[in-house]
Amino acid sequence: RYAVYFPATSDSYVEVGNVPMDRFTIIAVVAKPDRNRGAGREFLWRGVHAGGNFHIYATLNHDDSTSLCIVDSGNALRCVHAQNAFSDSFNVATYVVDGGRLEIYVNGRLAASGSFSRRVDQYVLRFGERDTGIAYPFYVHAAYVYNRPLSFDEIASFRPESPPRQGLIAWYVAEPQFFASGRWFDASGNGRHATVADSVRLVQVAW
Q1: Confidence of residue 62 (pLDDT cuts 50, 70, 90)
Q2: Is 44 in contact with 30 (CB distance < 8 Å)?
Q3: Alpha helix stretches (DSSP H) within 6-92
Q4: Global pTM?
């Protein structure tokens, strides 16, 4: 089995490009084997507005939790947190923004939710990149980007090998045919090929 290895340095990211993020779903099949290594967190993914101050992001945290946050000029407007979300095997993490609604699902089950009042726009989307504290690596087997909020039933029955196709605007699979020459190629057929930083690489994993 293959996975994309993010070593959690400042340049460990994959950049997708501009993605509409007012109503969307991002799903990642992710493992974080180096657990509980002191305070810190890494960006699983982050959307950055062209102005640079307004962000929406999901983090993998040192205590195996995950967070989904809306931030303006360094001030968190809203965060929701899901505890005990990750282990040293792969988990399916789903993040949904539906207008003013934030939701996190772990392995098909709702783990956290909340609301916010500010409209989210279009952003440059990155997977990976170090955030704060002690760095630790993580692995992504596959990632999916939808331009709509998936329904509860779609999330509960999600299968990585056969994702719902409606609204799927990007699909990244950790397989050699999709990962080469500094690119992670979009398997959805929509041509949203991602640019890969030098420190990110495709590896074989035993679990």
Answers
A1: confident
A2: yes
A3: none
A4: 0.91
